[in-house]
Amino acid sequence: MANAEPPMDDDGPQSNGAYRQILADIRAGVLLPGARLRETELADRFGISRTPVREAMRQLEADGLVVHIPRQGATIRVLDYSEVMELYEMRAVLEGTAARLAARAASDMELDELTALNDEMASAPNTAAAYELNRQFHLTLLDAAKNRYLVKSVNALQKTLLILGPTTLIEPVRATEAVAEHMAIIAALRDRDGPQAETAMRTHIEAAHRVRLRALRGRERPTEGI
Q1: Which of 1-5, 50-54, 137-141, 161-165 has the highest mean pLDDT?
Q2: Domain HTH gntR-type, which positions (predicted)?
């Protein structure tokens, strides 16, 4: 039958769906660092068997997002302070390089798209919309750098950053600052000034890093800070 639904034991599409849903929960802060992942509970929640859930958890483990703790099982990985510092240092290096390369390689159409995304972000109605527009801005700039190996490196880093939870744009002031920082990046790109584009991107990432560290310090107190 041509349009039949995939069978319940076909764990390919289902494991991909479970994987994406768990990633979304990590990104949204529904699953926080240290949270246990129970196969039975997840299978019931997603309406699938435990086999695709187990496969999704293996993939998350390969990504470095899940670890197995003795007598506890699969758990969302907890990043220590030094790891967070290292992640943002590498993000500044990689995305700064992307901005420098994009200043040389980006088309006028790509620059116009970056401007349009940032304009939409400035008037985004909520944090979720601002997050998605910000994500599209960074992906568009990364594509404009025209370096496939850089794309792979940034994508791998971004997966690990998901462990940190909700976007820093949840702070209204940070969202406004990010739009202004994007404008500085775009201005350097339009001037075809690679070093300045890299500097503007590094400034942008470092600002996000400071907000993230404040949020993490808040988490360590009795009340959560993000």
Answers
A1: 137-141
A2: 12-79
**Per-residue pLDDT tens over the stretch 192-201:** 999 999 999 9
CA-CA-CA-CA torsion sign (126, 127, 131, 137): positive
The closest of 141, 165, 166 to 154, measured between CA atoms, is: 141
Which token pair is 76?
Answer: 């969302």
* CATH numbers and ranges of domains, the chain: 11-76 (1.10.10.10), 81-219 (1.20.120.530)
E-state strands within the chain: 66-69, 73-76
Give SS3 for 95.
helix
| Count of alpha carbons within 13 angstroms of residue 208, beta-carbon side | 28
- What's the chain's Rg over C-alpha atoms? 19
Q: How many CA atoms lie within 13 A of 27 on its CB side?
A: 14
Model pTM? 0.78
